[in-house]
Amino acid sequence: MNYESSVKPVWCPGCGNFGVFSSLKRTFEDLKIENNKIAMISDIGCSSQEPHLFKVYGLDSLHGRVVAVAVGSKLANHGLLVIAVGGDGGIYGEGLNHLISAARRNIGIKVIAVNNGLFSLTTGQVAPTTPKGVKTKTTPLGNPDLPVTPIPLMLSSGATFVARGFSGDIEHLSYILKEAVKHKGFALIDILSPCVTFNKIQTYEWYRQRVYKLEESNHDKKDFNKALEKAFEDIKTNYEKIPIGIFYQNEDEEALEEKDIVLKKGALIKRKRITKEDLKKFVEESV
Amino acid sequence: MLAIRVAGANGEGIDTTGILLAKILAENGLYTFGNRGYQSLVRGGHVWYQVAVDTKKLNTFGGNIDILVAFNEDAVNYHKNLLKSESILIYDPSIIKNKVDNVKCKKVELEMNKLAANLKNPSLMKNTIAIGAVLKILGIEIVTVKQIIQKIFRDKGEEVVNENIKAIESGYNAVNKVFSFKGGKRKIVLDGNTATALGAVAAGLDFYAAYPMTPSSGILHFLAQNQEKLNVFVKQLEDEIAVANATVGAAYAGARAMCGTSGGGLSLMAEATSFAGMAEIGVVFVDSQRTGPSTGLPTKTDQSDLNFVLGIGQGDWPRIIIAPTSVEECFYAAANALNLAAKYQTPVFILLDQYISERLEAVDSFDFEKINIVEPKIAKDPKDFKRYLVTEDGISPLAFPGMPGFEHTASSYEHDEFGNSVADLYGGLPYSIKNRKEQHEKRMKKLETAKKDELIKLPELIGEENAEITFICWGSTRGAVAEAVEKLKEKGINANAYAFEYIWPLKDEIKKLLKNKKLIDVEENITAQFAKLLKREFGIKFKGYILHYTGEPITSDEIIKGSLKYIKKKGSSVSDLKKEFGLVE
To answer: C-alpha distances in angstroms, A70 versus A90, A177, A252, B105, B347?
Structure first.
């Protein structure tokens, strides 16, 4: 199956988004997902070009709203693989409420947060993920704020699949994405993704020296407490050690689509609607 | 018409009492019209419920009160000015002692507390006792009442049925018959929110999302309670921004999707409306207006979101606006809104208000045969499929995720016919400039097509074609205007009215309809928003304005009072006319 569209990417050479694109492509290829069954919803930011590059159903939404839009699409037709792709600004900043809500509801969307620690499309302003002290265009004296910590935040929000990947390691990122797609409920994949133009600190090299794979360190992804411990490791070590991989996966929790009184019968748009006769009867008897 | 008002402290079950009374009367085959007066409180405060009853269809809940059931002293004090000398005041002498002497009307003592003491749940049953008394005064047969009570409470068990019948009977037997109301065919009683929800379901509603906000919450409550029976997905989401965007996302994936809110919530939805307009996704937004600006009067009515909805969301994009003119019309309007959203692939707004959302009206039945599901224009050939194909009527072929071979990206960015963004790669280049113009014009073309569509209706003419004055109204104020036209006619004054339900786009024929008419604008906002829209579109002039913005629904008397100065009647001055209509200065 061919997943590539004729649209060419407009990212800066070396952008982390190329790695995200390649990993997504490999995920689709390896799992042989039918093109028409993929709905890729994007936020607004550098990463929002992803849907255009694929021969799948795509929708450019609004800055910060990708998760809410994806939730709607998934609930309307949960037979689709619904991917929400956006940057750290949109997903962890402007639209954080949607992320927490989708996680605690366990709606089976796959949220891909391409995290470059900055607002890059708007030329390098401070982002919710920018570490404390970092100088940016809008924090010339250094960022006075603590960053959002997506992994612990997602764990405490009831997310049933929480992972972190690195766009410089396509092999490993593809593995995570495949596991996320196979997971029936909500999944967050935070992707450390260097911005080669504006982020001069968190470069490929910087990450390569710090990341290590949870899969190679005897981590039990089913153990919530262990996951919580690992989730704070980057902060605790002042980014000396950054674990990547699947922090936590809970396959026991039902997805909303499986338990909702209407959705559990099948995809919403494919169900048989109430007939005129039955509705008429309902009005006469129950109103 | 006869108006009954039940009044007392919040938390006493006043609403339930009024609604039950309206239901019993409608089950008995009478037309009823109910309206609640309440505040944004859970307990405390003074509340009332007014039920009008008649053998013919009602336009309003009535002006003066014919029967007042006063549960406390406040009820007498707040409402006594609406009582006429022949009105009946029902009260419990053990609660209100010597407080009714100076009220000039007929009085009926009803020892509700004493009678309720013998029943299982006295505080609740005293209300039912009052209903029994009212039903006797109206002259409703007790046999029929008993059957109705049985039907209404049957799901709650035999004990509840029996207790209620006992309570009704004790009230019934304590007073004397005054009127002789005879019922006809059984009617359905419902409010505008319920009718809107039902109309949407009739037209194939798949998905409804909302965040609670008075006075729109009734739609969410009704659909949530009946989601299984109606087989509709219903979800309360984290905020209105999520509600609007998830609804757009659901519609993108092929669902017939609707969301509801009031003005404050709609403010948060603004960006999503524009998104749907640009990406060409058909969704329905319900805005039940309440008295603004800002938090305003949450439980009161207003028609002041019109300008907001006309201009909501950044940029120019096509929108359709419908403001149903009665509870019955809410049903058909909601069905039509879903059809229009599907057909035109753009947002459709239903403008309700607190009054129409929450008032009760008795409806004979809904004509389900009139509801046809209009499907969107679905693409047929995957070869050379262009999601945003430039067409004559502005409507492009559509494909939903899941359809093999039609994969494309829909976009909030300006895009070409394929959906590819022309912002990043080509912005400002000749290709993009040409494309932008074509796509923008294509989208707006949908409005021209919609104008000629029979799904978009002309305003309803109330009264005769030629009249001395012509009222212009829209949405929920239709009832009061129709009543005013009727009352004026009784006094030999020929007035008519055009009641608009389809607000945008306005059909070209409207200009001719309004030509050479002495137009009086009636609306519930301070700036004459709708009149200004008509002026802007058609260059017509208005003779006068009756603008109402107290939060309470406008009454026919107020409309008559405001219109008398534009009426010429031989030998009568304005103050003569006012006297003739019994309107005191």
So the answer is: 14, 17, 23, 63, 19
Residue of A nearest to B232 (CA): A262
The domains located in chain A, with CATH, are: 16-261 (3.40.50.970)
CATH number of B460-580: 3.40.50.920
Mean pLDDT for the stretch of residues B152-172: 92
User: A206, exposed or middle or buried, with CB in 10 Å at 0-12, 13-18, 19+?
Assistant: middle
> B15-38 pLDDT, tens per residue?
999 999 999 999 999 999 999 987
Return the CATH class of domain B190-370. alpha beta
Strand-strand pairing, B31-37 and B46-54? antiparallel
Nearest chain A alpha carbon to B151: A285
What ipTM goes with this model? 0.98
Tokens, residue A277: 């006769």
Query: Domain B2-174 carries which CATH code?
Result: 3.40.920.10
Q: What is the DSSP string of A140-192?
A: TT---SPPP-HHHHHHHTT-SEEEEEETT-HHHHHHHHHHHHHSSS-EEEEEE
Pick left, alpha or beta for residue B147 (phi over 0 → left; psi -120 to 50 → alpha; otherwise beta).
alpha
Q: Are B153 and B24 in contact (CB under 8 A)?
A: no
Nearest Cα residue in chain A from B370 = A276
In this chain, the answer to whether the domains covering B2-174 and B190-370 adopt an identical fold is no
Nearest to A263 among B233, B248, B251 (CB): B233
- Whether residue A39 and residue B408 make contact (CB cut-off 8 A), yes or no, is no
| Exposure string over B82-117, b if 16+ CB within 10 A, otherwise e | bbeeebbbbbbbebbeeebeebebeebebbbebbbe
d(CA B519, CA B541): 7
Cβ contacts (< 8 Å) between B332 and chain A: which residues? none
Cα B471 to Cα B481: distance, rounded to the nearest angstrom: 7
> Can you give the residue ranges of every domain in chain B?
2-174, 190-370, 375-454, 460-580
Please identify which residue in the block is written with the tokens 């309902």.
A282
A25: nearest Cα among A42, A11, A38: A38
Alpha-carbon Rg for chain B, nearest whole angstrom, is: 26
Give the model confidence (pLDDT) of B518-540 as tens digits: 999 999 999 999 999 999 999 99
pLDDT single digits (tens) B337-369: 999 999 999 999 999 999 999 999 999 999 999
Q: Which of A57, A69, A261 sits opposite B246 (nearest CB)?
A: A69
Cα(A120)–Cα(A126) distance, integer angstroms: 9
Asked whether the predicted pLDDT for residue B585 surpasses 60, the reply is no
> Which chain B positions have a beta carbon within 8 Å of A100's beta carbon?
238
Provide, as residue numbers in chain A, all residues whose Cβ is less than 8 Å from the Cβ of B233.
75-76, 260, 262-263, 268
Q: CA of A286 to nearest chain B CA: how many angstroms apart?
A: 10
